[in-house]
Every structure is written in structure tokens, then in C-alpha cells.
Amino acid sequence: MTRGITRRTALAASAGLLAAPPLVRQAHAQSAFDWKRFAGQSIEVSLTANPRSQILIQNQREFEDLTGIRVGSEQIPEQQHRQKFVIEFASGRPSFDVVGISLHVNKRQVGRARWTTDIKALMADASITAPDFDFADFGAGAVAYSTQSDGRMDTLPEFTDYFILYYNKELLAAKNIAPPATFDEMYESARRLNDSSRQIYGNVGRGLRNANVVLWSSFLLGTQQRDCINAERQLITDTPDAIAAGEFYKKLLRDCSPPGVSGFNWNESQTTFMQGRAAFWIDGVGFAAPLEDRTRSRVAGKVGYAVVPRGPAHHHCAMFGTGFGIAEASQKKGPSWLYLQWATNKTNQLRFLTSGAGSPARTSPYRNEEAIVASRFPRDFFTTLVESGRISRPGLPEIIPVTQFRDTIGAALTNTIGGADVATELKRATDAFRPVLEQSERAG
């Protein structure tokens, strides 16, 4: 069953925006590996609704023809999907065999409960792992993200989402402004680019509670501190560095962004940027496709792509990621493992990259010069992804109550846009969330 996309609807067109990429030839006929050993069986796959899931569902007939396995797929909006699979896993009888997991939200929760299978043993079994699987092709950062602290690899990496800097080349050129190398340069340039009489602003970004934490953490990554919790897994979101990141967040959104930005999530930010009313926007790589859609975007062909600027102490970009897990309760781990191999193969990963649906976990797509040249995205889009991969760090702490964390810290950040004192707000939010985190850690 396939359900319609309501989360990130604006991105859905990315799967069909570009011409299909040249397929990487798969050596399915090689050796004695039997793709049809589970022919006649069926599996259920539960995915988050996004352009990558759409690509997989549109092309899953390839897998069915290759293996003889029938696939029942569903794609559910992000928030609802997270709630659904947690409830089903907790019941002990999930309705799915394969599930897509947002590692930046659910990694620690899934790992602690051991809801998904350690796939290392499956990878080591030559009878069910294709000879062209090429695990070494997965990026080290993506593999680390899919690996739990105890060494179990309970998901297979699908996608890494880097926060990058989108900029309006036309607006910058009009004032002879270069893409910023540092956050301070970004702020000064954004102030110069403000023109409220024309409803044009130097910046747009997430101001809405919860959604905004990942923008603030992008600034925190540039400080000496870099993290929201320390080595002892204690909350450190009211330190001088955390406050400095909050002060930058406050002035960038308060001084250089549109009125009402405190209510902006990614979609309002995207709309503003697409209309040519913002010069800078820091957000995930998956928004490139709608920005380049000439049927909907006024800035198509005018978008510049760059790594996020450097902070005062470090140069990192926020990284988020997804992986595919096989339910530990599933009785069809063999067929499910074949599906994971197909879903993350080089062909599908290349489709993700060249359609603008996201940044693949594999490294080979970035070396496919023929596909990159044939793509409708400019060269700087691809170089930005490669460079971002080199400086990426997780944009959220690996904790179980991550949604409560984002709600609590996010409310404080939203208040600062209205003029509240940053240090006071972050201390209040930290004091409120600290016992929640401590209780969660004790439970583990």
C-alpha cells in the first residue's frame, strides 16, 4: 500500500524533476549468487514519506522482478511514521519487516530496545549477500551513524542530510557581495542585503519551536564546545558557547529575516527563498530540487550552493541521517536483507543524488562524472555535498527524549527572536530539560 505524502510535499516533485540518471550496471548475473532463493515470499516495508522513498517505491518492480519477492510498501509523513513504528515495535508484533529510521531522532531509542537486527552477521553470509554489494562504498560517517555504541550495526545507511548554505546569486551580485566564509561575514552581508521596502531580507531560517534547534546547533558546532551534551552525557546548553550560538541565532533572525520568522519552519523558509525574498538560507540539502524547479521557483538557475560558514573555533556542518532496519521480530530476515541491498544499491543511491532527493550514504555516486554532468544541478551543488561530508558532525545529541529536547530548547530560542535575553532563556530551558535527560539516562 502506498500512502500520499503530506510531510515535505514540496519536495515530492524532486524524484521526477530531472531526467533519470544513467544506471550503474549491476552484475546481478555474476557468480552463483541466487537472487531468487526467496521467490514467492512477500515483505512489508514502512518508509517515511520523502523523495527518496518515492524513488524506491516507483522502482521497486526492479526488486520484485530480480527476486520474485513481493513488496508491500507504505510511506507515511515523518512525525506520524515515527509514532507508528515506536508503537508497533513496543507491541512486539510490528506489521513491517523493513523500516526506515531517522537516526538523529530514534537511533538511541531503537538501539537500546534492540528493535532491529544487527546486520553484520547478514553481511558476512555470502549466501545472502550479493558479491557486488560493496560495503566499503558506504561512507565512514554514515556507517558510524548506523552503528550503536556497543558495536551493533542495526541499520544500513541510506542517506546523510547535511545543512548547507543556499544563497541568491542575483541579490549578492547586485551589491558585489561574495558568499560568506564565516558566520560573522554572513551576518554583516545579510544586514547589507536587507531591503524591507522591497520585502527582501538578508536571511531566512527556522524560527519555529522545535524545528529551530537544528539551526542553532549549526552555530554551536562552530564554537569550541560543539556538542549539547558532554562526555559524561550531561546537558550543557547554557554554557558561554551555547549562549554565544544563541546570540548569533537571535541577531540573524531578529535583524535580518522577514517579519513573523518566529513561526517559520522549513516550508515557510523555502517559500520565502523560492520567491526571491531572501539572500541566505541554511537548511538541508534536500531542498535543492524545488528551488531549481522552473515551474514553481523564481530563483531557479540563480541559486548558489556552499558549505555553511566557519564558526569562531571550528568549521562543521550539521549532519542528520536515515537508515533501513530489519525488525528483530520479523520472520523474513533473508528477504528483507535482499531488499536492503537493493534499496541501497549504487543505482538507487545515484538516483537520489542526481534527482536532488538527497545526499547518498555511498561514495560512488559522487565520482560518477557522467551522471553529474548530465544532471540539471550546477557543479557547486555536488562539490558542496562532498565538502560537507568532510566537515559534518551530528546536528542533534544522540538521546532518547530528542523531541522533548527540541521542544524545550526550541521554545527558548523562539522567545529570543521576540527580544528575550538569550542567557536567561537557555538557562531556564536547560534547567527544565536536565532532569528529563537524567531520568532517561538512568533508565538505560
Can you walk me through this structure?
This protein has 444 residues and is α/β, with parallel strands linked by helices. The protein has 18 helices and 10 strands. The protein has helices at residues 14-17, 51-67, 78-91, 103-113, 120-124, 140-145, 169-174, 183-193, 213-220, 240-256, 266-274, 288-291, 333-343, 346-355, 369-374, 379-391, 402-417, 422-443, and strands spanning 42-48, 70-76, 98-102, 156-168, 201-204, 278-284, 303-307, 317-326, 359-360, 392-394. Strands 1, 2, 3, 4, 5, 6, 7, 8, 9 and 10 form a 10-stranded mixed β-sheet that branches. Strand 1, helix 2 and strand 2 (70-76) form a beta-alpha-beta unit. The chain is globular and about 65 Å long. The model is unreliable at 1-31 (pLDDT under 50).
Q: Nutshell version of this structure?
A:
By secondary structure, this protein is of the alpha/beta class. The chain has helices at about 15, 50-65, 80-90, 105-115, 120-125, 140-145, 170-175, 185-195, 215-220, 240-255, 265-275, 290, 335-345, 345-355, 370-375, 380-390, 400-415, 420-444, and strands at about 40-50, 70-75, 100, 155-170, 200-205, 280-285, 305, 315-325, 360, 390-395. Mean pLDDT is about 90; it is low at about 1-30.
